Amino acid sequence: MDYLVVSTLLGSLMYMLVLSYDVACQYHKNFEKRLREDFVPDMHLDLDDVKVRFVIPKNHISVHGRNHSQYSLNLVPHVGRTYGEGVESSWSHLNPAAMSTREMALATRHEILNDHMSAWNWRKKIELGPFLLRSLRQAAQIAHKQRRLFNEFTATFPPDVVKEWERVIALWNVNPGHGADPYEEPETTTTISKVRLELAKEEAADAAVNPEVLDMSPSVFIQVGLDLEDQQRSLKLRDAGKTEGELADHLERRNTLARRIRCWAEAQDVYMPAVIQLRVQTNTLLSPSGVDTQGVPPTATNTDTESDGPPIPNPEDASLFLPSALPPHLLVGEHTSRLLNYERRLRLAQLEDSLADIRRLRRILKGISEFKRLNVSGTGNKPNTRVRALYAKFLRKQVRLVARYRAAYCALAKIDADGNWRRTFRELLDSHLTGPGRDDDDVGEGHVEISWIWLAPCSAFSDSDESREYNDSMRAEWARSKARAERWEEEVELLVEEMDRVVKFLEAEASQWRLRADRRVHIFSNPRLPFDIADGVRAFALRQVDIYSALARRFACQWTPLLRTLGRPVKWVEAYYTTAGASTSADGEGLGEDADGSDADEDD
């Protein structure tokens, strides 16, 4: 391997050298030392002023694990969207030939394989035009999209934090492998014990019994109504269980919720008297009489009181009739407008809090997944089941938060349909619940799009430690987003350069064949050589000149409109492309595989 590298690079002038190898993380060790000690002085490479980067092809780097970002083509600067597997793409064309060549002699096998590879190379040549055109169009579109997403993502962080991250990335690019890796996710601090303690604290807070409030201000009245709505969603998502103890616990929660709702309804009768008639018409849990047994499920018994109306079994299904849920004809009066304004402000805060909590849960779920992958996977069913159960608990919390966000979004859409809040908050779909990082392994790193939930500015972090924790956890995501935008922008530059080099390559091939047409003049003067053979050799060479010139002209006609649209002028435009006479149909005639002259003798 070292000899191949040295013999290839010997005599070359280089500024930057990128070596792609499946095991580059091992091959790069003592690389320069081996070149100095294992080769004669005439074969020494002077790499003192050359920036050497070792990379791993994209199809192989995923199996190398953590701490390999310095070898990732997605993160190394100046490589564009290079994937490092191009030299192996011909295998799909050659593999079917193995059924025939394995029965052949060595010489015949060599000729057959040479013919297949010549045909493959010729197909690549004549398809470079549409391929590079599609690639440049796609790269320009995605580069614009990724840069826009990155700018929106950057705007959600404080400027001093972004400046520090840029400094870390700059240091890493100068000396990769040393210092903090900005592209690696920080080590998760999530442990089973810590998560269980956090769950226990949250469940204790949820289980605390709030005192019944009979006298409350209008703002507190709306706030308590939103809390009751959240408790209804929580009870709906809670599994009642199968054992008697679980059923009893679920029933007690229902009874407690029913009592709280009836207590809150007393204040609602004062602030929103029109709701009394709505309850009667819809036969909801909250009857005007306020009989306690009205909300008791049928499985419970109460011999002290009886209800004249039909019982409502589930208090979590009762309509609370908050101002946003009232029919339009009831939304009249200054007092109702005041209540609507209170709900609008509280719903907006509910949106912001829910989005911040969803972000926090997504980061916790990511930490649990990493913890399971690194510490639990392969250790047996019991620890795996325990971690999956823990993961499922947080998923249920996420479902509850998503339901709260959607309820607040729908309420705000009714109260303030055209408000400025729509610039920040959007409708939350299940497909938006992604990140941080890449969730789908089928999507390449360069095509990852950050969900809007990470792009929306959120001021819910009142605690500086929590804000600092969030910024630290999102550093790698920000760095990778920056790398994605930069790689696609580099891809645009490289594709424009590739187009320029393709045209120059075709011009050089045409020039070489033009020289070959006159190279055998001394053979043509031989009287024993038939004139038809001499004319045929010359005609074949001139036909190759015409083919390569036509390819250059056709590719230029295909590429120039897009290059002009992108504002990328190139030197060969005027020579090949004219708006009035550009024609590609005639130039493409006779460009089949029979026109391949790659195996012609070039040594004479």
3D architecture notes:
This protein has 604 residues and is mostly helical. It is 57% helix and 2% strand. It has 19 helices and 2 strands. It has helices spanning 2-9, 24-27, 31-37, 58-61, 91-94, 98-101, 106-126, 128-154, 159-174, 192-207, 218-237, 244-271, 274-282, 334-376, 381-415, 464-517, 521-524, 531-565, 573-576, and strands at 16-20, 51-55. Strands 1-2 form a two-stranded parallel sheet. The chain starts with a helix and ends in a 28-residue tail after the last helix. Mean pLDDT is 76; it is low at 188-192, 209-214, 286-309 and 579-604.
Question: Concise description?
Answer:
This protein has 604 residues and is mostly helical. Helices cover 57% and strands 2% of the residues.
